[in-house]
């Protein structure tokens, strides 16, 4: 009995120690302001071969290829002809609020994420309509045929309930037949859908994770407080799903089939340095690429200046963590 009690105490102390272990910090290698985005509001990043692509949530008719040859990057416009929107199952009330807001801010489609498969096809998620636009390597743009069951199941789990809190990011596997979608907040969640002949649908269950609640902002944040848990983008790399969790100022590696957190890395120490701070009382990072050499993180600052006066979108290059992205805690 005493041996069992001692073992239980040891396990408890080990668990507490693990929980208390600080999240390792990522290190910035370079910083790149972006010129040439008509709508600003850089809200997604993708790497297709050697090219970087981005979207703005204020532009419905174009995306951008990034010329990265200089320290200041130039966004090169690529026009898109968007076909008629499909029926996704998102309630009329949410769609109509987004339509009304578009007259003030621009961007009825509200593009919030972009991803590429290994063939170079690009996929863009529309938060305003809970839909995914495919831009094939050749041929016209087309909306993916996503079963309405996807939105129905997400809403049944408490997600996609609030205006401007729908799908905030997506990631696709290299084969182009599995896609992850991130519900932003209140409640946040992760969904997995698969291509089944001509329709994208759930393979069993769609919802891998649904959670609400709040968490504390990092200690570096001025007047840190508890804020809504959120996801602002996704990246799929080396068989793992990486989530950008802007209110916590961290990237987390997750199991792609269960969404279970395996490890997290913080970028708070770098992006919350005084000269890089923005006046908003929440995180603004909305774009993520993870690869073997590190990570790209982009900010949607809505043309708001940071402390040093810079008001263009920024993309930061972070070094890969010690031991790589597959390292265990």
From TrEMBL:
Residues in the signal sequence: 1-20
Ion transport as UniProt keyword: no
Q: Show the Pfam families listed in the entry.
A: Phytase-like
Q: Where is the Phytase-like domain?
A: 40-186
Instruction: Note the InterPro entries from the entry.
Output: Phytase-like_dom (IPR027372)
Alphabetically sorted, this entry's keywords are: Signal
Q: Does the keyword Zinc-finger apply?
A: no
- State the protein's name: Esterase-like activity of phytase family protein
């Amino acid at each position: 009995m005493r041996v069992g009690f001692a073992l239980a105490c040891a396990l408890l102390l080990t668990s507490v120690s693990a929980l208390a272990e600080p999240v390792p910090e990522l290190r910035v290698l370079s910083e790149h302001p972006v010129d040439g985005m008509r709508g600003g509001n850089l809200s997604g990043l993708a790497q297709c071969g050697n090219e970087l692509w981005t979207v703005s949530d204020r532009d419905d008719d174009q995306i951008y290829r990034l010329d990265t040859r200089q320290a200041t990057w130039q966004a090169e416009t690529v026009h898109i002809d968007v076909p008629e929107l499909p029926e996704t199952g998102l309630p009329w009330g949410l769609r109509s609020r987004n339509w009304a807001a578009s007259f003030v801010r621009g961007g009825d489609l509200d593009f919030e994420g972009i991803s590429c498969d290994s063939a170079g096809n690009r996929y863009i998620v529309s938060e305003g309509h809970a839909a995914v636009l495919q831009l094939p390597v050749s041929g016209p743009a087309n909306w993916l045929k996503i079963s309405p069951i996807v939105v129905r199941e997400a809403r049944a789990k408490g997600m996609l309930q609030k205006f401007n809190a729908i799908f905030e990011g997506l990631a696709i596997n290299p084969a182009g037949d599995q896609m992850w979608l991130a519900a932003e907040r209140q409640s946040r969640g992760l969904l997995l859908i698969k291509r089944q002949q001509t329709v994208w649908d759930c393979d069993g269950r769609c919802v891998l994770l649904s959670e609400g609640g709040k968490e504390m902002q990092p200690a570096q944040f001025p007047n840190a407080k508890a804020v809504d848990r959120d996801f602002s983008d996704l990246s799929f790399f080396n068989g793992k799903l990486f989530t950008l969790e802007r209110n916590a100022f961290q990237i987390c590696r997750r199991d792609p089939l269960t969404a279970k957190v395996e490890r997290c890395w913080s970028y708070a120490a770098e992006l919350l340095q005084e000269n890089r701070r923005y006046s908003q009382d929440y995180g603004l990072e909305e774009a993520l690429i993870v690869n073997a050499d590190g990570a790209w993180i982009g900010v949607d600052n809505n043309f708001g200046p940071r402390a040093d006066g810079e008001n263009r979108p920024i993309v930061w290059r972070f070094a890969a963590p010690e031991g790589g992205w597959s390292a265990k805690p």
